Amino acid sequence: MKVVVVESPAKAKTINKYLGSDYHVIASYGHIRDLPRKDGSVRPDEDFAMSWETDPRAEKQIKAIAQAVRGADHLYLATDPDREGEAISWHIRNVLKERKMLEGLPVQRIVFNEITKSAVLDALANPRDLNDELVEAYLARRALDYLVGFTLSPVLWRKLPGSRSAGRVQSVALRLIAEREAEIEAFKAEEYWSVDVNLRTRERKSLSARLVQLDGVKLGKMDLPNQAAADAAVAALQDTTYQVLGVEKKRVRRNPAPPFTTSTLQQEASRKLRFGATRTMRIAQRLYEGIDIGGETVGLITYMRTDGVQMGQEAIGAIRGVIAGQAGDRYLPPKPRVYRTKAKNAQEAHEAIRPTDPARLPRDLAARLSDEDLKLYELIWKRAVASQMASAELDQTAVTIETAHRRAQVRATGSVVVFDGFLKLYVEDRDERASDDGDDNSRLLPPLAEGDALALQEINPEQHFTQPPPRYSEASLVRKMEELGIGRPSTYASIIQVLQDRDYVTLDNRRFVPGDR
User: Fold this and answer.
1) Residues facing 2 on adjacent strands
2) Do the domains spanning 2-138 and 192-255+392-464 agree at the CATH topology level?
3) Kindly report the CA angle at 19 between 14 and 22, in degrees rounded to 5?
4) What is the CATH number of domain 262-386?
5) Is 150 exposed, middle or buried (0-12, 13-18, 19+ CB in 10 A)?
6) What percent of the chain has pLDDT over 70?
7) How many CB atoms lie within 10 A of CB 394?
8) Exposed (0-12), middle (13-18) or buried (19+): which is 362, by Cβ within 10 Å?
9) Mean per-residue pLDDT, 82-95
10) In terms of CB atoms within 10 Å, which of 95, 264, 320, 335 comes out highest?
11) 3-state DSSP call for residue 454?
């Protein structure tokens, strides 16, 4: 009998079906031990020696695993394929070793990035030893978490009664939110004006253009500081005719975004689906562990804690096949797209988050998945498939128009999608919309040529005020933490949840506001 240990009972049940009666698959239910919350659990003066304590709630599972390995001829540790998974396997091995349950029993580590029969069998065919470097990285992180939290929390309790904890990552995340709030409170709005004109062609087509030059001087955003300046500009635009001075056209290509990492999935699910980071990861866990299809439980997505953007060649080939079948060869680039991780502290070489079988279309799963599960699966599927589609092509146009007396120039911009490419399937959202800058490349412009005469219809001066930086949303906070190398993709959701659970921050219109303490 061969014993396989995984974290969750759902995962154990699925893998048991794959492996049959020669294997006993059992769950550890996550971590089985941790550092006790008392002085001396980490001892820097003793080369950072650490004392571990078994979680009483885990004792039942430890006994079940110990019972399973009695008489077994092999133990495979199949916890998640990341640092935390490596740590859980290390703890299980060491606890069993301390209890003298492993004498003469081969112990090996297996990892798989998706819960499918082929992936699990491939992992069993390629076992390895525990990765000491990953374990040491976990130990260093856990020691730092303990030392920072154990040192700072008592100070916090004395200085700020009612505060519950400080932490290596949570305190930095809270600082980001508090510093942004201080920026907003210190911000002093400045007045400025813009002037737009509505013009009409001989064919009675309308277009809008913004004043960009007055009396030979180019105007920046803040160069009309008050109504008097705006009124003077309006006077220069009245009682005159307009003529097209020049038309600039250029063909631009937009490339698709790479498939999701943990961070980008949380950001995009927040923007598109309004899912919080914790909710997103909970749903992703269900999709990873899988659903019953044709009497067999199948994982729908690859492992959801990753900072990698690359995909395996087999997956890319399958996605290209789906694109050709669903959209046609026009939407396939000549060569597969290759993406490389840019995250500041990327550590793991896992694949991006993608569907395990791209041919499993979202609409085919509509009857099997809950509404929220289907929405997240569709988001992951579309992003992964779009990442291998052809570039979109757009014609961008900028038209410069001059008044007859040559005192003023106005500018209109617009674009036309010539070939939609990946935009046929997926458009990435943005968290903070660009401020009013006069350029709207989504506008369609009527056909124009140099020398065309235009008639003035209306002049629209508008008052604006500079805006403070926006408060962080979940999406923008996750992005900022990733940019600064704070935390890991697997911790973002839990850190954000801790800040809310401890009333350090509240959400106002889906933006974080620090509490008063």
Assistant:
1) 23, 74
2) no
3) 130
4) 1.10.290.10
5) middle
6) 94
7) 21
8) middle
9) 94
10) 264
11) strand
CA distance 342 to 494: 23
- Using a cut of 0.85, tell me whether the model's pTM lies above it: no
Q: Is 146 a catalytic residue?
A: no
pLDDT digits (tens, 9 = 90+) for 239-282: 999 999 999 999 999 999 999 999 999 999 999 999 999 999 99
* Both tokens assigned to 381: 């599927």
Q: How far is CA 231 from CA 194, 219, 226, 446, in A?
A: 11, 15, 9, 29
Which overall architecture, per CATH, does domain 2-138 show? 3-Layer(aba) Sandwich (3.40)
Helix axes 170-186, 492-501, angle to 10 degrees: 70
Which amino acid, 212? Answer: V
DSSP 7: S
Domain boundaries, the chain: 2-138, 139-186+470-514, 192-255+392-464, 262-386
Query: What mean pLDDT is reported for the chain?
Result: 91
Residue 435's pLDDT band (cuts 50, 70, 90): very low
CATH number, domain 192-255+392-464: 2.70.20.10
Q: Supply φ then ψ for residue 102, to 5 degrees.
A: -115, 10
- For residues 271 and 431, the answer to whether their CB atoms sit within 8 Å is yes
Q: What is the pLDDT of residues 89-128, one digit of tens each?
A: 999 999 999 999 999 899 999 999 999 999 999 999 999 9
The letter for the amino acid at 51 is: S
Of the candidates 303, 331, 377, 504, the residue annotated as catalytic is 303
The confidence score (pLDDT) of residue 487 equals 84
Query: Per-residue pLDDT tens for 391-424?
Result: 999 999 999 999 999 999 999 999 888 999 999 9
Q: Are 260 and 352 in contact (CB under 8 A)?
A: yes
How far apart are the C-alpha atoms of 122 and 124, rounded to whole Å? 5
Calculate mean pLDDT across residues 438-449: 74
Token reading at 174: 């809270």
Residue-wise DSSP of 49-87: EE--EE-GGGHHHHHHHHHHHTT-SEEEE---SSHHHHH
| Phi, psi (rounded to 5 degrees) for 200 | -135, 135
Q: In 3-state terms, what secondary structure has residue 418?
A: strand
CA-based torsion, 25, 26, 31, 34: positive or negative: negative
With the C-alpha atoms ordered 360, 364, 368, 373, is the resulting torsion angle positive or negative?
positive
pLDDT value, residue 506: 93
Can you read off the two tokens belonging to residue 505? 């921050």
